[in-house]
Amino acid sequence: MTLDSPCSGCGHGADRRAFLREAAGFATGILLGLGLSPAQAAASAITLATGRRLPGSFDISYPIPEHDGATIDKDQQLILVRAKGAAYAFALSCPHQNTALRWLEEDATFQCPKHKSRYQPDGTFISGRATRNMDRLPIRSDGKLLLVDVERAFESDKDPAGWSAAAVKL
What we know:
Layout: H1 16-33, H2 38-44, E1 47-48, E2 52-53, E3 59-63, E4 69-73, E5 78-83, E6 86-91, E7 102-104, E8 109-111, E9 118-119, E10 125-127, E11 139-141, E12 145-149, H3 160-165, E13 168-169
Parallel strand pairs: 1-4
Antiparallel strand pairs: 2-3, 3-12, 4-5, 5-6, 6-13, 7-8, 8-9, 9-10, 11-12
């Protein structure tokens, strides 16, 4: 059975997003059971999102996250992060060999599963084989939404000023 195929024996369709929503809800329930407050449990869950393209623009819009954590948009191949009063947008892939990065909730870092490169929530390189920070995408806010330009990326070693400026204070 795949996530997009019907449940075996029950006849109900199981799509991937429904499965992931249920899994996130289950994980939040476990965290509540471990004694975390509802706000802490909600903040610990990874969010999946699909942004909306603004007409006549390369910008994709997203709601401003209420809590620190990571939001993944697989359709746009990007990661939104809210951390310590700022928001960032990153390419989903590791700058070393373009493998999809994973968010490690237990220590609030990113890790490349291929060579174990690790990054802080703001995209700063910590350790591993990568030779630079995560690639940041231009991001801005209109006060209600985060707007990400998915057609450009800043590499920290080639454009340090652009990379540093690709953040929104919240």
